[in-house]
Amino acid sequence: MNDMKRTIFTLILCWYTFFCALAQSPDTLNLMPRPQSVKIAGGNFLFTNQFAIGINGPGSEKLVSAVNRFYLQLGKRTAIIFPQEFITATDNKTDAPCLVKYNQTVSAQIGVDESYELNITGNKITLTAKTDIGAIRGLETLYQLVAPSSAGYYCPLVEISDAPRFKWRGLMIDVARHFIPFEVLKRNIDAMAIVKMNVLHLHLSDDEGFRIESKVYPKLQQLGSNGFYYTQDQIRELVKYAHDRGIIIVPEFDLPGHCTSFLAAYPLLASYPANYKPARRYNLDTIKHINLGMVMKMINEMPTPTIDPTKESTYTFFDNFFREMSGLFPDAYLHIGADENNGVAWKQNPAIVAFMKAKAIKNTDELQAYFVRRLHAIAGKYNRRIIGWEEAFNPSVSPDVIIQKWKPSMNDTLSAKVFAHNSQMIISAGYYLDHYLPSYVHYLTEPVSANVSQADADKGILGIEAAMWSESVNGDNEELRVWPRTAAIAERMWSAENVRDVDDMYRRLWETDFELNDRAINEYGNYIKILARWVNDEDLNPVITLTNVCSQLKGYKRLMSAMLGGNSARPNLSSPMVGIADAAHAESETRWYFRKSVAAYLKDHNQSDLEQIKLQLQRWQNNKARFDALAVNSPYLQTIADLSDNLSGIAAIGLQALNGEGNKDEQLKKLQQLAKPLHEVQLAMIPEIEALITGQLKPEPATYSLF
Question: Is the whole-model pTM more than 0.70?
Answer without folding.
Answer: yes
